[in-house]
Amino acid sequence: VEDIGLNGTLHPCQQAMVDCHGAQCGFCTPGFVMTLFAHYETQRRAGKGAVTRTEIDDVLSGNLCRCTGYRPIIEAAQKMFSLPVQVHEDGRVVAALKNVSPLRHDKFVSPASRAEFAQYYAQNPQARILAGSTDIGLWVNKQFRAQDHLLYIGNVNDLHFVRVEGGALRIGAAVNLENAFAAIARHVLPGNESFREWWVRFASPLIRNAGTLAGNVANGSPIGDSMPVLMALSAKVVLQQGDLVRELPLEALYLGYMKNAIQPGEFLAEIVIPAASASAFRTYKISKRFDQDISAVCFAGSVSLENGCVKELRLAFGGMAATPARAVMAEAALIGKSWSETTISAAMDALAQDFSPLTDMRATKQYRLATARNLLQKFWLETRIDSPIAGAQLSVRHLERAL
Fold this sequence. Notes:
alpha+beta; 4-stranded mixed β-sheet; about 35% helix
């Protein structure tokens, strides 16, 4: 943070923080400054300037301040674009770090190729795979759990890929969440507003630029938000053990609470998402706090209609069972039937056969079941054949902003 200014001059984001009195105790200031700097550089390189309040809120959502009430920091975010421009050289430090040769230490191994990574892990299945450290890092600094043998995936160059191949989007295991979501939005769900809202509510920009989509999927948390979306999109996972590669539908990966079908020495190498063929896709996240919160229930659904009847349907939920899962009984109540209020009501009733959720600090069993029913009805209201209702009209958040 001390080095972002040039030639002894404060960077515009630093100067704006000073001018707007954006720092009080100073504990959170370095984080805010670096977040503002990153956003300033992103906007500058894209040829853009000042941003809206909503964009500022999204950018700053991962930073906490107990002193200022945020108003002066938000003002600094707006003001920095009106100050004299500073131009930084592009990524010298980052480029240097990426060129570091493969690192091996007694407790930390960092291969540079997929083949080397696969071979090492097949021979050392007791190693813990490390990606963005958004989960393992908390084990260490909050739970004081020692990690004696880490295998880092972040330097594996041939797992840092996003490509369209054979009509499907393929995302490598080392791709961070932000880039993975951007690829899905671009290639699979262009213009889908519900996915866009879900995206910005998935953790913060800081976490999405560190954690990986493959790590979130392999972790298999029952309230992991990416899995319902990927299940609704018919995603598959590519698993690799040495030279052996196999492919599974995502829903077949999870066997029970924090248990999966990955064998010792095998790792999740790719996520494959076919080109979207559904008539409609929606995803909704329900949590106590709009930003930066774990879901009580996450829902994703895709439906294809033919002559007013359901031809294909995938309904997936998080927070409703020991694993993220599809609502197979609700799907069965709808496939081949008319996409109507009567059939959707039957599917809502069938959810009680699909799930028996737990009560915990985020929600009660009854709340989760009622919410799942409501989300399925909302999905139908937004996608029904006659007079569909726009998502914004069914969102309290959008109504609040309009008021």
